[in-house]
Amino acid sequence: MLTVWQDYPPELLTLDAGDLYQVLPGPTLIHLPGRRQPPLFVSVLLHGNEVTGWLAVRKLLQTYQDRELPRSLLVLIGNVAAARYGMRRLPDQPDYNRIWLPGDQPEHRLAAAVIAILKQEGVFACVDVHNNTGRNPHYACVAQLDPQTLQLATLFGRTVLYFTEASGVQTMALSQLAPSVTLECGKPDHPHGIHHAYQYLQDCLHLDHIPNRPVPAQDLHLLHTIATLKIPEHLSFGFGAAAVDVMDLAFPEDLDELNFQECPPHTPIARLRTPHAYLEVRDPQGQEVSERFFYTDGDYLLTRQTLVPAMLTLNSRIIRQDCLGYLLEEYPLACSWPHSA
């Protein structure tokens, strides 16, 4: 299922994400030599509708088409089939960012093959590039809090999200091999995200090493996920005035403007059509904790305490396939480097 190339046809660099199927037979790992070893690993299109990563890599490869890369590069182009249709994943596929753990599906074997190659080659760092479907700032996600990982993350920006609960995520799996980050580059139609990802990859390729010292506190705003928000399958939902009295849960049409903002207690989150409508809230251990964060008052669902939502989306397909969003809180900086003075 995995195709491995030591080079690529020139026409690859003329294609948008939706046209890659014309050249690539499926998920493809491209190994390109450079001045320094070991290689930088970059993963794009694990979600077929998140095209910023490919556009940034395409620009990078165009830049070095006729000259040597500063460091060897391994590029994984992931869900080519879903990218053809502008979808996160096809209906019969698993999420390509949930397959990075043992399993019996072909996609699990694909992930295992990539990991085996990275172990054999050695890897300098791992970067997985994504987009959000809702309005969010650019930020990096990490699964480890060692100084090198945080140095790699803050090279992208000051805001860093620490996660531990997302099973099968690539960054979590590859963090056992090398410093690993996920880049969240805003919406896929924003040119700034392409430029930001491209410049970050350039910076990584030019690094001689990743510093193994703590990031200064003023350079890091560290957050972590404390809950995942899901809409139960049996409940209908929508956004804006048209959803009120029609859907079980009616959210504001600008719900994603709450991302990375502090919502004070008693902030309305949704209008409820029936008293049986609710939002499913799970902590990192999988426990249902909705009463800790929300309460109902008449027809409304409101925040019980100050909350910081993230990755809230208005895309109903993504909500059904994944989730509505997450809740965050600040992570104490002292926890970032327990062995530092």
Question: Any key phrases for this structure?
Answer:
12-stranded mixed β-sheet; 341 residues; 5-stranded mixed β-sheet; globular; 17 strands; alpha/beta
Biggest beta-sheet profile:
12 strands, mixed
The H/E string reads EEEHEHHEEHEHEHEEEEEHEEEHE
How large, in whole angstroms, is the Cα Rg?
21 Å
- The count of DSSP E runs of length 2 or more, i.e. the number of strands, is 17
Q: What does it look like?
A:
This protein is globular. Helix 1 (52-63) packs across helix 6. Residues 335-341 have low confidence and may be disordered. Strands 1, 2, 3, 4, 5, 6, 7, 8, 9, 13, 16 and 17 form a twelve-stranded mixed beta sheet that branches. It has a five-stranded mixed beta sheet with strand order 10-11-12-15-14. The chain contains eight helices and 17 strands. The protein is α/β, with parallel strands linked by helices. The chain is 21% helix and 26% strand. The N and C termini lie far apart (48 Å). The longest helix is centred in the first third of the chain and has 16 residues, at 106-121.
